[in-house]
Amino acid sequence: MSQIGITKTFDIGDGRLVSIETGKLAKQADGSVVVKMGDTMLLATVVSAQEAKPGTDFLPLSVDYQEKYASAGRIPGGFLRREARLSDYEVLISRLVDRALRPLFPDDYHADTQVMISLISADKDIMPDALAALAASAAITISDIPFNGPISEVRVARIDGKFVVNPTIKELELADMDIMLAGSAKDIVMMEGEMKECSEQDMIEAIQVGHNAIKIQVQAQLDLRELTGNKPKREYNHEDNDADLKNRIREELYAQIYEVAKGGTNKDERAVAFKAVRDAFIEKETAAKGEEGLDDVTVMLIKRYYHDIEKEAMRNMILNEGVRLDGRSVTQVRPIWSEVDYLPAAHGSAVFTRGETQSLTTVTLGAKDDEQMIDGAIFFGYNKFLLHYNFPGFSTGEVRPNRGPGRREVGHGNLAMRALKQVLPVEGENPYTIRIVSDILESNGSSSMATVCAGTLALLDAGIKLKGSVSGIAMGLISDSETGKFAILSDILGDEDHLGDMDFKVTGTANGITACQMDIKIDGLSYETLTQALNQAREGRLHILGEMNKTLSAPREDYKPHAPRIIEILIPREFIGAVIGPGGKVIQEMQRETGATINIEEVGEFGKVQIFGTEKESVDRAVAKIKGITTVPEIGEVYEGVVKNIQPFGAFVEILPGKDGLLHISEIDWKRFETMDGVLEIGEKIKVKLLDIDKKTGKLKLSRKVLIPRPERPAGEKKENTNSNQPQ
């Protein structure tokens, strides 16, 4: 007998139904739901500790999205044949959900909280990532965990000029805009996507369409909470507070902090000055306590309150003075310098520096064997464009162990990859597998946007024929709801990202936007403000693009001399077996003889052959051999053949790989030979002309003498009969 759960079903707006079920699976979690659309099912659970760990002053939230291979009827690859660490794709979805949920927890809630979302059934045409945040939010909403939601997330794509919410996988292949949006019933809190050079107005329209769909899903979660009995939220006290101490810090230090913020200093000088103000206060308080000194709780409170007041003073300084922490105006972009071909041995390289942020980026060109294999529960295949982003500790002057890329690095690299992917040459015009690596050497704000700029320059330096150059900029927002003041900041610093209300990254060409990422930390961001931010971002992008163009504005005419060469040719499908040979013998021999790497794949009625080599000569030799195998002999053509076999009546000459013809003794020369002794040698190269192809047997009739000038006959000599009836 099956357990009966509580279910809320709703229409997403186009006739397709989504159900949220609870009370059936994972009932020991604080909250659990199963979201179902078509055959796709997601199980989301949330568990939060009853108490916060001592000394914790943040929300220890972890969000993990994982796709079970069984959900799609597949067995994982690899030696262990089981789900392992999260793939980059799963990490990216986890980040999308995390960024949507995190701002909605109370600021003073610090208990360890874990959200887990599992794909347990997969519909082959429904994207599960667009349902992940809905499932996670629903699990939290019906629980007793404090949460200022619910929220939800949708995908908006533009297909044939129309906006579609949560399109199918097949529909998404036709889209020129793909955006993921998250929000509450009132506000958008997160956005990320890619597009083919769209306008700012197009993006605003997509956000509006998505927000209308989100409101439906938010209401469905509230209805489900009603059906489950409106479980009361738990009471908690995760912070010690001392109002008198906070007021005293504000009264004594606010003016000093304000002056430091107003000083227009660089990152390090500003950090030292702020710390000096705080440490002086701690020393004064410690001295006032005498031998007893300050206890650990009081020191922690001083640091927390100082941080809050520092943030408040910096925000007010920018709103009141109209200048930034480093002395810039709100629209001013930091100084830029860039250089290409910095690394002579790389296939393409660039250094891009903007203010105190610097990226050293390389481009490596590879063959088909270098493609990345994608082996996911739903998506599997190959990827020929990779972008990897590295953020070592020294880039911010920190000591930090190198343990490989974290979620932040994966997310930043993915944003830059989506930005540049839109301007790559189409499939037939780019035979290479391309890998971009961005190593951040200095960081003080928007290193992902520096990666986009450096990546563009490195691709141009490598000779990749981009459709256009891409630049990127990070925008910020500081607002005061009481006074109505707000400031939109172009090219934000790291400090401005932390103290601001919005982090909005926009990339694009001179023609339009190619990618975006936005996180909003306040309620009530109007579409008018968002439009202003987008327009201001466009001005900043174009300025940065102009600076980049001073270094390199178009791709190199040719690849670097040391870059590998790739040629792709199409051959009739029936020749694929001949090129490969029995057990791969022919293709392996060609690779050994030429030094080139050869790959063949069947594409429709043709075989696509990719020849890859580090030297042009080796590629040319391989192309010649393949064309020899696949070329059909033509009557009247002249070939350079090789004598393979000698018989009394003539010689068999190979004019193309695997294609022999008879050169009759009478067709060797104008003079008459009685025997073949000493006339030709096996292995000798000679030029011959194809006279005829027997229609029944396919045998080839060759002649050498027709290529030799005919000698004049002595007077009275009979004409030689050239119509031989000798065996063929």
UniProtKB/TrEMBL annotation:
Residues reported in the UniProt entry to bind Mg(2+): D497, D503
Cellular localisation: Cytoplasm
Cofactor field: Mg(2+)
Biased composition (Basic and acidic residues): 710-721
A Gene Ontology biological process term: RNA processing
EC number: 2.7.7.8
Keywords, ordered alphabetically: Cytoplasm, Magnesium, Metal-binding, Nucleotidyltransferase, RNA-binding, Transferase
Residue span of region Disordered: 707-728
InterPro entries, per the entry: ExoRNase_PH_dom1, ExoRNase_PH_dom2, ExoRNase_PH_dom2_sf, KH_dom, KH_dom_type_1, KH_dom_type_1_sf, NA-bd_OB-fold, PNPase
Residue ranges of every copy of the S1 motif domain listed in the record: 636-705
Gene Ontology cellular component terms for the protein in this record: cytosol
Superkingdom: Bacteria
Record GO terms (molecular function): 3'-5'-RNA exonuclease activity; magnesium ion binding; polyribonucleotide nucleotidyltransferase activity; RNA binding
Ribosomal protein listed as a keyword: no
Coiled coil segments of this chain: none
One Pfam family linked to the record: S1
PANTHER family, sorted: POLYRIBONUCLEOTIDE NUCLEOTIDYLTRANSFERASE (PTHR11252), POLYRIBONUCLEOTIDE NUCLEOTIDYLTRANSFERASE 1, MITOCHONDRIAL (PTHR11252:SF0)
Family to which this protein belongs: Belongs to the polyribonucleotide nucleotidyltransferase family.
NCBIfam families: polynuc_phos, PRK11824.1
Name of the protein: Polyribonucleotide nucleotidyltransferase
Species of origin: Solitalea longa
Organism taxonomic ancestry: Bacteria, Pseudomonadati, Bacteroidota, Sphingobacteriia, Sphingobacteriales
